[in-house]
Design brief:
This protein is of the alpha/beta class. It is 24% helix and 42% strand. The protein is built from three helices and eight strands; from the N terminus they run βββββαβββαα. It has a five-stranded mixed beta sheet. A three-stranded antiparallel beta sheet has the order 4-3-8. The radius of gyration is 15 Å and the shape is globular.
């Protein structure tokens, strides 16, 4: 599967690589997409950076507990995409390498552990438009294709 790239790589700039795993959660009753709103009002998919020696599944489960207060099930792999960007919070250039999975909430066990993170549910078009990172917007589209094909009984 080809890596999709968003943003422009600026020559002579050193980028910090940030591999991360993100989950695409669809509400079972209304099909809305789970999005994390941070304290600064920005929207992100649930998930985050992979820690040393952590598998994708371990990372996503840890991040879901931290950001959503939920135990989750990791589903099918949707794809990977990356984005070159400059963080105005950290004053650094990053190459975010995102790995995206369909996921389901197995059990809500607590409020989010990260106090400035709020789980909200958005219509897919609002999620696509509102997500901060372009590669996360791309992942919503890919997830919708996968969910549609699964609902039609297709395997891929």
């Amino acid at each position: 599967m080809k890596m999709i790239t968003f943003g422009e790589k600026i020559e002579r700039i050193e980028y910090t690589s940030r591999p991360a795993v993100y989950g695409l959660f669809f509400h079972p009753e209304n099909g809305k997409v789970a999005v994390i709103q941070t304290g600064n009002g920005k929207y992100f998919l649930p998930g985050g950076g992979i820690e040393t020696r952590e598998t994708h599944e371990e990372c996503m489960k840890r991040e879901a507990l931290e950001e959503m207060g939920a135990e989750i099930e990791l589903g099918p792999f949707l794809g990977h995409a990356r984005r070159y960007f400059y963080s105005t919070n950290e004053y650094k250039y990053y190459l975010s390498e995102g790995y995206f999975y369909l996921c389901e909430i197995a059990k809500q066990i607590s409020p989010p552990l990260e106090e400035d993170h709020t789980l909200i549910w958005l219509d897919s078009l609002d999620a696509e438009a509102g997500l901060f990172h372009e590669h996360q917007r791309w992942a919503v589209k890919e997830a919708l294709k996968k969910v549609h094909s699964l609902s039609k009984g297709e395997s891929k």
